[in-house]
């Protein structure tokens, strides 16, 4: 399908791509913690540098990384404006009618921008860009497997998500094919009133549902033929193994987090309030 | 006169992502009116993509597609300054010309999918109506034809494709694969397109099903004088039914000509993962053994008559 890729996975073979998905989930969480530890200019500079280094390590083009910021552009703009105009401080820079802009407000806005961008870019690098959704689900299942002791059906949920993820592109492709076939028979999806447009969906939805159900039955049969009974005693095709690199990456990022915490002691420039 | 013409057409999928792929690369091709043109090429060579551009379902990234000399994806500026429509209305005043050109082009776009009928790969998945009859009449109904005309066309198309009338009240979902394929084909033929484009019409059918489908396509051409384009993997079918053969390879047109010209390049064809018909190969082997066969043998029928003429004349002393 044109322009359709599931999630944002960007294929590659960088150091980060090769990490274990469980490690990447933990790294993602650590990255989030890191962004919230930062309080002063010095630690934010370090955070920004960390983000840049990760971006370079992941070998994902900057253009594509920046694209992930598009959905939060409005939030970025809004929070900066709120920060600039709403923060009360001591150092008044500018005043007009009911608007008061303090130096602290500018710092706050800057810090929020760095914080949100780093947050999105770093979690993107660790999770969505370098890990396929399937690997991510696998990793999550393994991380949550202790919950099985509490009779939470972790495996079944993971299997459901995996199947759903697996079939999203298939269904999208199929939708496009059926749409093309019906357009070739003269259906016009983009003109006419609401009623007519809704009606023109029928020739798409019926074949789509029929084939989706057929596919579901086939898949269920195929799984049953292979004696699938849920997670109990099941071995896996891709067994996840932590490698040395995974531990090193996690320890490193933990260290960086602690470093950022102490970097807050250098209080030149501004700090967040 | 060329019915359809592609000029330097380039088409890409997933532009701007890591998966960007050029499915058609600078393709120039003419389709002759009234002929059956076969398009052959290995999997992924861009055949289906090309078919999609012929009836305006999609437009190329670069290049032009013309139907009867009219650009399928003309923008307004071109239309009003240099198109064939411009020449047609040249002697009108400027504003009248603009109006005439734009309204004629809008009509042209609207009727495009009825003039170039596309039967997609595995068309049986597009069936959706409650009954076979309703499904075949879906296209004609979208054309805005009268009830009687629709009825007449549905009957004709069903006859051509061999869908018997006692299937008319059945649900299309209860048919066999081959029957569904024929119903889908009838659904497009009922629109009576001037150009019938078929993407792998016989894929997955048994030999009799293949022959039925192809002979209904040939019948349709003979009855209506339409131009036909068939995409196929089978050299045998190409040899048997097509007047011209176009070979696609890696998003480009690799060869073009009548079957004799194309099948003469055995080496090139096999380097593209394609093959000449087996019967042609057999005839070649027989010729090497000294049998005086004519050189143009591409179908079993031709082989039969050639062999008969050899053995009929001098059969006694062999
Ligand atoms: N919807 C799509 N999205 C992305 N890429 C596509 C899409 N459809 C086709 N392609 C790619 O474009 C290229 C040409 O595909 P196309 O379907 O035109 O091949 P084809 O010649 O019809 O092959 P086949 O004989 O298997 O039907 C292929 O490499 C394919 O991977
Ligand atoms: Mg195809």
The CATH homologous superfamily of the largest domain in chain B is called P-loop containing nucleotide triphosphate hydrolases
User: What percentage of amino acids of chain A are in beta strands?
Assistant: under 5%
Structure class of chain B: alpha/beta
Q: What is the rounded distance between the termini of chain A? A: 47 Å
Gross geometry of chain A:
flat
- Architecture (CATH level 2) name of the largest domain in chain B: 3-Layer(aba) Sandwich
In what order do the strands lie side by side in the largest sheet of chain B? 6-7-8-3-9-10
Unreliably modeled segments of chain B: none
The mean pLDDT of chain B is: 88
Overall shape of chain B: globular
Largest sheet of chain B: 6 strands, mixed
The number of domains of chain B is: 2
Q: How many beta strands in the DSSP annotation of chain B?
A: 10
Biggest beta sheet attributes of chain A:
2 strands, antiparallel
Strand order across the largest sheet of chain A: 1-2
* Quaternary form: heterodimer
**Overall CATH class of the largest domain in chain B:** Alpha Beta
Bound molecules: adenosine-5'-triphosphate, magnesium ion
- Number of helical elements of chain B: 14
Average pLDDT number of chain A? 87
């Amino acid at each position: 399908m044109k322009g359709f890729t599931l999630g944002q996975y960007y294929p590659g073979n960088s150091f980060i791509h090769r990490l274990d998905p469980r490690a990447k989930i933990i790294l993602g969480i650590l990255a989030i913690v890191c962004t919230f530890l930062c309080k002063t200019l010095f630690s934010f500079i370090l955070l920004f540098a960390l983000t840049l280094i990760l971006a370079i390590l992941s070998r994902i083009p900057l253009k594509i990384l920046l694209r992930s910021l598009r959905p939060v552009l409005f939030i970025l703009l809004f929070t900066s404006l709120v920060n600039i105009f709403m923060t009360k401080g001591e150092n008044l820079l500018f005043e007009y009618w009911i608007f008061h802009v303090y130096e602290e407000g500018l710092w706050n806005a800057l810090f929020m921008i760095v914080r949100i961008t780093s947050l999105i870019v770093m979690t993107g690098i660790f999770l969505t860009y370098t890990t396929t959704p399937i690997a991510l689900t696998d990793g999550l299942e393994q991380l949550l497997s202790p919950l099985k002791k509490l009779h939470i059906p972790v495996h079944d949920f993971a299997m459901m998500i995996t199947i759903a993820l697996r079939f999203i592109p298939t269904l999208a492709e199929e939708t496009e094919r059926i749409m093309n076939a019906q357009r070739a028979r003269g259906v016009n999806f983009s003109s006419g009133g609401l009623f007519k447009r809704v009606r023109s969906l029928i020739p798409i939805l019926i074949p789509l549902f029929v084939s989706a159900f057929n596919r579901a039955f086939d898949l269920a049969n195929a799984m049953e033929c292979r004696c699938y009974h849920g997670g109990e005693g099941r071995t896996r095709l891709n067994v996840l193994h932590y490698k040395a690199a995974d531990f090193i990456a996690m320890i490193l990022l933990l260290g960086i987090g602690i470093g950022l915490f102490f970097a807050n002691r250098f209080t030149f420039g501004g700090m967040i309030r | 006169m060329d019915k359809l013409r592609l000029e330097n057409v380039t088409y890409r999928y997933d532009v701007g992502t890591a998966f960007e792929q050029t499915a058609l690369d600078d393709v120039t091709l003419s389709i002759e009116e009234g002929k059956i043109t076969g398009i052959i090429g290995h999997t992924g060579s861009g055949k289906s993509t090309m078919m999609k551009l012929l009836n305006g379902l999609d437009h190329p990234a670069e290049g032009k597609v013309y139907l009867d000399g009219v650009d399928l994806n003309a923008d307004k500026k071109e239309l009003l300054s240099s198109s064939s429509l411009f020449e047609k209305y040249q002697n009108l005043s400027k504003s009248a010309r603009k109006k005439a050109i734009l309204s004629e082009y809008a009509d042209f776009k609207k009727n495009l999918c009825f003039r170039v009928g596309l039967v997609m790969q595995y068309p049986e998945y597009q069936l959706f109506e409650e009954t076979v009859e309703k499904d075949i009449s879906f296209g004609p109904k979208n054309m805005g034809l009268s009830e009687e005309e629709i009825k007449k066309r549905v009957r004709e198309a069903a006859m051509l494709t061999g869908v018997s009338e006692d299937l008319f009240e059945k649900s299309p979902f209860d048919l066999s694969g081959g029957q569904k394929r024929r119903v889908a084909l009838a659904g497009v033929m009922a629109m009576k397109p001037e150009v019938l484009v078929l993407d792998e019409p016989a894929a997955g059918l048994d030999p009799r099903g293949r022959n039925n489908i192809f002979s209904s396509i040939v019948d349709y051409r003979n009855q209506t004088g339409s131009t036909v384009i068939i995409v196929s993997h089978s050299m045998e079918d190409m040899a048997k039914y097509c007047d011209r053969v176009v070979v696609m390879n890696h998003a480009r047109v690799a060869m073009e000509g009548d079957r004799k010209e194309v099948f003469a390049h055995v080496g090139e064809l096999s380097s593209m993962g394609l093959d000449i018909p087996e019967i042609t190969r057999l005839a070649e082997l027989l010729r090497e053994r000294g049998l005086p066969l004519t050189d143009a043998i591409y179908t079993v029928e031709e082989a039969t008559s050639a062999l008969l003429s050899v053995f009929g004349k001098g059969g006694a002393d062999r």
